[in-house]
Each structure stands twice: as structure tokens, then as C-alpha cells.
Amino acid sequence: RGPSRSRAAAMHQAGWEEPSAPVVRDGSKADNAGHKTVRSVTFSRKSSLDSDYNVARRSTEKSSSRDVRPAMLRGGSSEVSDAIHLLQAQTTIADLATRSYHRGLRAKARNLVMHRYFEASIAFLILLNSVYIGVETEFTMRTGEDGDLTMPWYALDMLFVLIFWAELVLRLYVERFHFFWIGWNLFDFAIVLVATVDKIMVTFSTDSSDVLDIVTVVRILRVARILRIVRLLRFCRELWLIVLGIFSAMRTLFWAWMFIALVCFIGSVFITRTIGHEARGDADVQELYGSMSKTFFTLFQVLTVDDWVDVVNVADQVGWFAKPLFCLFIVITTFAVLNVVVAVIVNKTLENSINHSESQVREMTKNIKKSRDAVNSIFSIGDADGDGTLTRQEFMEALRKQDVMRFLHEVGVDLRRVDQLFDVLDFDESGVLDVDEFVDGVMQARGDARSKDLLELHCDLWRWEQSMRKKVEEFKKEASRSANLLHDEAKSIKDVVGR
């Protein structure tokens, strides 16, 4: 009965009326054709109305259900709202804790990669690989066999390649996309990739004809293997500073070499004209001073102090001025210019070392400032009333906010025990934290759980010390009060005895 009324009401609102059978004036019914027409029209209208009614009812039910839920939530108790906030906070903490776990793994991997023993091990493996390349080359020259085509040498070289790939994968996991922004990483990747291509070509070219077809490429790749030793510059800081000092002094070195070349050129012109032309028939003189190129090379030999006495004795047979001239040349070039070159390289190396240390200090200071700014942002978000202090309730409310948890995650605070952080920082048990206490405490609590445990132990020791100080003060007051009582009692007894 209800649906029929609703349907009728809907039809009435739509402007439809339930049709009845048409009646003629004499009261008889219409003919069969008229009845069929009316039935078809009535049925089509009723079907359309039924479908419209069903659609309207479903939409009404959906809208009412959507309206009921918020109404129920709005009309619910505060416990429901608190439970929802708590669930959201727990979800956020769980999500960030998972990230913190992976971040902890990445931090451990970073500590492993940056550890001095790891770098020393990689440097030792590079040296060992260089020794292997030298021994394998000597073996090839002595036996005439290709070392890469024999199983022991092939397996050993493959082991080195796999170890270097493992190192690159570990660095890629730690640095992620920043891996490709570091020049040393790209150089290491290129060297290991060349070694891998070499191994692939050797592995799949088992036929001798195939080896002959690619022999040129393979030889180039094998020669490129020696570049692996250049990777030592990455792990040996002192060696890299020397190389960096040489490159930094290139401008000064260029002009020093130009000066040496100019001195050698002037000396070559003078000696060739005076000594070379005077002894055209002397084979020894012509071998050393017969042309500009020969004289220039002879002076360069004297510059290196290599058998310079024999060279000077040959020239001394022609003229008496040869010995003083060559001594002056050695003093100017070897003792003066070359020592200046060494001094410039040493000076540039020291400057680069100082600049490297200063850049590390600047980077560390920048990271600390960034972390302190993030901690200050956490304090500002948590300080709801803006009084410059943070209570425990404000801190717990702030932990529900995703921005606060994200900031704590970024500065390196362990999120698994972050709810205990306020108790750790409030070492004086005042119940409030000012901005300095909060920032300094969070900065000390950064890192893994051990850093927070050490901070907690330090705060516990401070509380114990303060408690012991209070007890000592109370004991002193009690002892002083007892001493005063004894003094008064003794004075009263003395007065009684005196009477």
C-alpha cells in the first residue's frame, strides 16, 4: 500500500494521472482497437514512471546514507573524534616508522661505505687487482698464451669484477639518484662497465675465429683495465691532494716550463754555433752537438743531471768555456727553476688541503643549521598557545601532525620511541620546555637509538645528581637545626647550674 501511494504521489507531482478506460456517451466501452491503444499507452507511461520512481528512490537512499554518516560522526561523542585522531596519528607513526626502518638500513649502509676500513679494503683490492694485471701481462709475454682465455686467470678477474660491482650497487643504494651526480661514481661505473664488456666478449667468443675478429677491441679493453688503479685517488686522500696540487699549479708550472725551454733554446743556439761548428770532424761532438735538436736534447739530459760530466768533458775538448757554461746552466735550471716548481706544487697542495677541510666544516655547519631550523619549526608548530614554552600535552598533540613527524624524521630522530622524547628532554622535571632546551635536546637525540639512550642516561644522571644535592641540603639544614637545639639546650643547662 505504501509503495502504491508513493508511486501515485510521484505521478501526481510529475503531472500524470492514472488513466481509466475511455467511455463513450452511451456508456459502452470502446472497441477492441481502442482498448489496445489505451492499454499500450497506459503500460508505457506506467513503466516510465516506475523506472523514474526507482531511480529517484535509489538516489534518495544514497544521499540519505551519505548525509547520515557525517551526521552520526558530528553527533558522536568526543571519544570517537579522539579515536579517529589517534588512529590517524598511529597510521602516520607506523608509516614513518617503516620509513625510519629503511632509513636506518640506509644509514647503516652509509656508515659502512664511509667507514675507513671499507675504503681501505677497496683500496687494497684495487692494488691487488693492479698486481694481478701486471702478473697476468708478464705471464702472457713469457708463455705466449692469453691469460684471459685460461680458467684460473679468467676466474680471478671475474671475481674482481663482481666485487667492484657489489661496491657500486652498495653505493647506489646509499646515494640513490645522487650517485650519478658525483664524478668519481661515474668514473668507477665506466671502468667497471668496460671490464664487464671485456668479460662478456671473452665469455661468448669461445671460437678462435671469433677471438681473432675482436682481438683489437679486446686488447683496447684490457689496456683500459689499468685505469682501475686511478680509483686509488678516491680512497687515498693524501695522494689525491698531491694530484690536485699539481693540477692547481698548472698555470705556474706552464710558465716555469716555458722558462726552462727558453733557457735550453738559447743554450742550444750558442753551443751549436761555438762547439758543434768548430768540431765538424769529431764524431763524439757531432753526436751530442751536431744540430739544434741534438744540442737541445743534450741540454735536457744535463738538466736531469744524467751523466752530465761525460757530456761536459766532450765539449771541454773543443773550448775552455764549456765547463763554466754548463755549470751556470745547471745552477739556473736544476737548482733554481725546478726547486721553484716543487715549491709551487707543495704550496698548492697545502692550500687545497686547507680548502678541503674548510669546505667540510662549511658543509657540516650548513647541515647543522638546517637541522636546527627544522627543530625550531617543530617547536613553533607544537607551541599552540604561543607562550614560548612547550608542555607535554602540546608535544603529544604535535606528534599527531604529519609535518612534525616528517621534520623529526628528517633531522634523524628515532620515531619508534618518539613519545618518550619529552620525558628525556625534561630533565629538570618542570613539565615545560623552552625553545633552547627543546632544540639542544633534539639535536643531541639525533641519530639511531643509541644516541637517544645516551642522552636519556645523561639526563637520568643529572636528575640523580640534583636529587642527591637536595638531600644533602636537607641533611645540612637538619644537622644545623639539631646543632642549634643542642646549643640552646646546653646554654639552658649552663644557666641552671650557674644559679
TrEMBL record:
The Gene Ontology CC terms held by the record are: voltage-gated sodium channel complex
Has keyword Coiled coil? yes
Stretch list, region Disordered: 1-73
Tagged with keyword Ion transport: no
- Where does it live in the cell? Membrane
**Membrane-spanning residues where?**
116-133, 153-174, 186-205, 239-271, 320-346
UniProt xrefs under PROSITE patterns: EF_HAND_1 (PS00018), EF_HAND_2 (PS50222)
Lipid bilayer topology: Multi-pass membrane protein
In terms of InterPro entries, this protein maps to: EF-hand-dom_pair, EF_Hand_1_Ca_BS, EF_hand_dom, Ion_trans_dom, VGCC_Ca_Na, Volt_channel_dom_sf
- Coiled coil ranges: 347-374
Organism superkingdom: Eukaryota
**Which Pfam families does this chain map to?**
EF-hand_8 (PF13833), Ion_trans (PF00520)
Which positions fall inside the EF-hand domain? 370-405, 413-448
Q: What is this protein called?
A: EF-hand domain-containing protein
Q: Which organism is it from?
A: Alexandrium catenella (Red tide dinoflagellate)
